[in-house]
Amino acid sequence: MGAFPTSDMPGHKRLHERVTLALDTCQELEDVDFKESQPWSELQWRIIKTSLAMANLRDGGIIVIGVSERGQTWALTGITAKELATFDVDKIIAKINAFASPHVDIDIVLVSHRDVQYLAIQVHEFSDTPIVCRKNGDRGLVEGGLYIRPPGKAQTTRAMNAPQMDDLLELAAEKRARRILEVAGRVGLVPRVPAGSLFDRELAGL
After folding, report:
1. Which of 126, 123, 115, 107 is nearest to 33 (CA)?
2. CA 130 to chain centroid
3. Biggest alpha carbon distance in the chain?
4. Residue 49 and which of 26, 106, 122, 131 are 20 to 30 A apart at CA?
């Protein structure tokens, strides 16, 4: 069984700040999604679908488990020990990636905020190629489907038209262009310039 790291570990400082900001503002966005404390069996399909979509976002997104919607307000209840026991790091990552093509990079940590514990799933943006659903599943998961989080909306939807693809295509093009330049530098087609030199060059113009 995979144990959960805690967000007070040095490597999770940025994630801790991201989660606590989301909890302090209690506002869902395209890169922030709240889930009520429930067993993994109840949440798994929503988490999988949201993860596939967040991996297609610039800078990815976070899913915070332990925030309940009560009418027009949010209740920061945290995740109960009983329901946390149904979650397992290795199984969650394996289950999400069973539906993802290519692989999705995920961090899962426990975050303590104001003496209440939450489970946070951080989904990183795709490395090279946008994430496509690998096979059919519950909650509308369709083999070959490409899921997104529309700008300014806390919802997951399947991309069905060109305008919905604009941001994703732009991000993919940037990554591909960067990769082409890296390869061209390695084989000597273009001069290799260290990233620090490019930064210094930009500062010189200020």
Report:
1. 123
2. 13
3. 61
4. 26
* Tens digits of residue pLDDT in 126-173: 988 899 999 999 999 999 999 999 888 889 999 888 777 777 878 777
Q: How many Å apart are CA 51 and CA 152, to the nearest integer?
A: 17
| Cβ-proximal residues to 41 (8 Å cutoff; 6+ apart), any chain | 86
From residue 73, alpha-carbon distances to 21, 46, 51, 143, 185 in Å are 17, 21, 24, 36, 53
CB 62 within 8 A of CB 123: yes
- Please give the CATH architecture assigned to the domain spanning 10-160: 2-Layer Sandwich (3.30)
Q: Amino acid identity of 57?
A: L
Question: Model-level pTM greater than 0.85?
Answer: no
CA distances, 203 to each of 178, 194, 198, 199 (Å): 21, 15, 9, 6
CA angle 48, 49, 54 (to 5 degrees): 95
Name the H helices within the chain. 13-25, 40-54, 81-84, 89-98, 162-186, 195-204
How far the first Cα of the chain sits from its last, in Å, is 53
Residue 138 DSSP code: S
Dihedral (CA of 27, 15, 78, 76) sign: negative
Whether 149 contacts 28, CB under 8 Å: no
